[in-house]
Design goal:
Distance between the termini of chain A: 34 Å
Oligomer: heterodimer
Largest sheet of chain A: 4 strands, antiparallel
Number of domains of chain B: 3
Radius of gyration of chain A: 25 Å
Shape of chain A: elongated
Helix content of chain B: 40-55%
Order of helices and strands of chain A: HEHEHEEHHHEHHEHHHH
Number of strands of chain B: 17
CATH superfamily of the largest domain in chain A: Multidrug efflux transporter AcrB transmembrane domain
Strand content of chain A: 5-15%
Number of strands of chain A: 6
Structural class of chain A: alpha+beta
Shape of chain B: elongated
Number of domains of chain A: 2
Amino acid sequence: MRILTNTNIPFVEIRKITYAISIIFVLAGLVGLFVRGLNWSIDFTSGVAAKVNLSALDSSVSPIQIDELRSVLMSNGFPEAEIQHVGAEDASTFMIKLKSKDADDAVSADTKTRVIQIIKDNFPEHVKGRDINTKVIQEIYEVGPKVGGELRTQSLLAVAIALILMIAYIWFRFELTFGLMAILALAHDVIIIVGIFALTGKEISVQIIAALLTIVGYSINDTIVIFDRIREDLKANRKEPMGKVINSSINQTLSRTAITSVTTFFTALSLYLFGGAVLHDFAFAICLGVIFGTYSSIFIASNLVLDFNKLIHKEKQTAQHLSRRR
Amino acid sequence: MKKFSWRGLSIIIFILVTAFYLAPLAIPNLPGWWSKHTLKLGLDLKGGMQILLEVDTSQLSTADARGAVDQNIKIIRERIDQFGVAEPSIQKLGEKRIMVQLPGVSDFEAAENLIKQTAMLEFKVVVQPDEAKRVLDFVDANISANLDRFPELKKLDELDKKILAEPDSLNQSSKAGVFSSLIRSGDSDFEVQFDSVRLIQDLMADSLFQQMIPAGRQIALERADNTVPRADRILHVLSSAVELSGGDLARAKVEYGSSTSTDPRIANKPYISIEMKREGARKFERVTADNVGKRLAIVLDGIVYSAPNIQERIGGGRAQITGRFTSSEANELAIVLNTGNLIAPIKPISTSIIGATLGSDSIRSGSMAGLIGLGIVMIFMTFYYKLSGLITDFALIFNVGFVLAILTAFGGTLTLPGIAGIILTIGMAVDANVLVFERIREELDTGKTPRSAVDAGYKRATITVWDANITTLIAAAVLYQFGTGPVRGFALTLTIGIIGSMFCALVFVRSIFDTFVVTGTKKTFSV
């Protein structure tokens, strides 16, 4: 069986359209970022997150409603508490998040203990007969203000270092233009995905940063396979115009790009569907990353190289440079 | 006969290493040296508690600061050992941070308090046995009078009474109260049976119980002997006055008596020599003068580490603690004594607690997602590339095994993001093969024989495989460098997965092709 072999799709010709699509997505992402802002998880803001199960042993006790829990926390000095159901509504399991607003207003070290105490005091019937430390509190995280701030700086630094190292590698293996354009395509992927997270209000946690870096690695992988083919084809067809060579290179690698994307997408999708709640957002980010990463590798990165070279009138040199170099 | 090849050798090593480290997961009852290499699970999969502590060294010089962090680590380790946690991990992170991981701990409040308290080293005089007996009787009487306020003891008392009430009980006349029934007088000390230790510890933490003890007296347990399972604990009655505190000590170190020493107490044995500060020396002289023949307890955080006899008045601020120490016991005691110099407080800066059920749920859903992902990819590859796809599937399973094996070999921990890393590797691992197969198809289309198509396909795809994977490795390496805990686990599995997949595609699968599939003059090639 074969798919997408011997295709001749005019990727280079339709690049104005694909650029436009990308620009729309990137703008939407940026608008999302600036209007809604990012919902940083407590890993970064510092604060307390607790997963509590308040289903009473005694079935005659009426289950707790989310509003009840919210008003209890509010009257006990936590008006900023975010509360969500975990799983089905009748499971009576809640995720309570208390985020510090800024460094001065940091969640103090005893917040965790206070939250546990509030639950013990206000819902005695729901807690009764169950071990508070293992059955009621299923999970609790407390992040101090220092750690949160540091982590944010570190994460941005990590993404930046990864990008710079990749530019350097591609520069060394290909040419600077290729490196810069590949990174531009990557930035496109990252902005769109972060924008989608901003628009949907999903949290940016440490795991999402890990997902972003994975996407960066994956997308550049796709792009490089195409670049590699362009280099090879430029060498073989020195007379042809660069646009034509690039177009045929993308077509030649199309089946490979599609197959790898499909297998990676399937595994990410199975992680999303069956991997459990903890990995849900992580898998979501990876799924998006595969889609947009593949899109930018096929439609954006190589076309950008072509246009940038046209802009600085260096098509000839680039072709010569690449075919000289091993 | 084929000649020796590096490729063959590397494949054999690859398979052996994978098999060696995976065997303990699959086969029970392996010899100890083998089965000890098992994959460790991260806290997020096992449940437990993790605390990140920061040592406040702002008051210390640079040299002292470094020492203070190490000392804190030792103290925390000591405390956790006393608390009884299996496989705790205590690591130094950066310059002044300590990461403590306690798998399987459920009473997290107690554990947290235990870790973050400031170390307190005190010297207290042990009261004479007859006085100690009197104190315990006093406590006993007090508790019997207020039994309603100690529900745990009351329950025990009722149980005792029931047994005593039985007609064949010999001990009808026993008047001992419930508290002293927990304590056994040994030859020179009091002992608490292992089963009662927890109860006694809870009592000692109870302020109500403390009111039952006569003024100026204190009850303390001796350190648990970790070499004996379920060991009984010695109980001391101390005079609660602090005779000397850690700050009075200048230095403690382990020394060895020479074998020719005339003093039988130190000949050929480790002992601890301590040096007091000036003020401490004066206090020490007074204490020893007043209490010759008694014992002086060295108490760290309320636990008696050693209670040496005061043999004579000691002036000059130098003393030796002798006893039947093993050298590691002597070392530990020296560390404890040196904690007196510990002036750097620690405070927790982040804490995570993960329930055990959540962890096992994660393992279940993680492996489920992995198996489904693996299944889909394998079916797809077989369907699309026929025999070659099937060979890839075979290599893919090996690759997953390889990731787990290498993780075990380097003593890494498998975390939930780590499982995600393995699952993603499954999707990405086939990439190298896809690159090669697509290339081979192109070569076949130009009319080449299978033999030369395979050779040319590999030759041309290899560069691409390297280029593409090195960039992904860069991302993984940065992730490893910046991440902590779970994220690091993810970066590690991703890295191993990428390396493994390159090996599988470029060496393993190729060898199978060369050896079994495209031998000699075969005309067809299933790809």
